[in-house]
C-alpha cells in the first residue's frame, strides 16, 4: 500500500506533531496501536483540510472519505513524553479510492513546557512507524462509493 509511482507523489509532505500522553500507553509503557491510529487519522484530516478538503466542503459536495483499511508497522515503541512527528502524503487517488502514506519519526526530547522550535524540523530521530491507509470516497446519501473527479484529484496533488 505504501509504494506509489513517484509521478503521483505531491510536491509537499504534511507534518503533524504529537506528544505521547500517559493515557495512550499500554501496560508495558508503549504507545497503543489505537493511539498510533488516532495520530495518523488526525494528520490525514488536517492535511486534507489544509489542502481545501475540509469536512464542510466535503459535505457540500455530498461525499466523505471513509477509512477502508489501515496498515501500521511499528518499528520501535514510543513512550510517555515522546514527541512523534507524523509525515503524510496522498500516494494515489483514482476512482473512488485514495491511498495515503505515513511515516512517524521520534523527535528529540525537550523539557515539558519548553517552547517549540521555530520552523518545521526535519526528522532527526528514529523512524518509529511506517503506515498506510486506503480511503473510500463515498456518497453521503447512499453510502456507496463515488468516483473522485479528476479536477479534485489535481487540486489535491497540485494545491
Which features would summarize this protein structure in a list?
five-stranded antiparallel β-sheet; 5 strands; Thiol Ester Dehydrase, Chain A; alpha+beta; 159 residues
Q: What is the CATH fold-level name? A: Thiol Ester Dehydrase, Chain A
The biggest sheet amounts to:
5 strands, antiparallel
Give the CATH level 1 class: Alpha Beta
- The amount of beta strand, in percent, is 25-35%
Strand order in the largest sheet:
1-3-4-5-2
**What is the helix content?**
10-25%
Average pLDDT works out at 84
Topology (SSEs and partners):
Elements: E1 14-17, H1 33-50, H2 55-61, E2 63-74, E3 83-94, E4 97-107, E5 127-139, H3 150-158
Antiparallel strand pairs: 1-3, 2-5, 3-4, 4-5
Q: How would you describe this protein?
A:
It is a single chain. This protein has 159 residues and is of the alpha+beta class. It has one domain: Hotdog Thioesterase (Thiol Ester Dehydrase, Chain A). Helices cover 21% and strands 33% of the residues. It has three helices and five strands. It has helices at 33-50, 55-61, 150-158, and strands at residues 14-17, 63-74, 83-94, 97-107, 127-139. A five-stranded antiparallel β-sheet has the order 1-3-4-5-2. The radius of gyration is 17 Å and the shape is elongated. Residues 2-9 have low confidence and may be disordered.
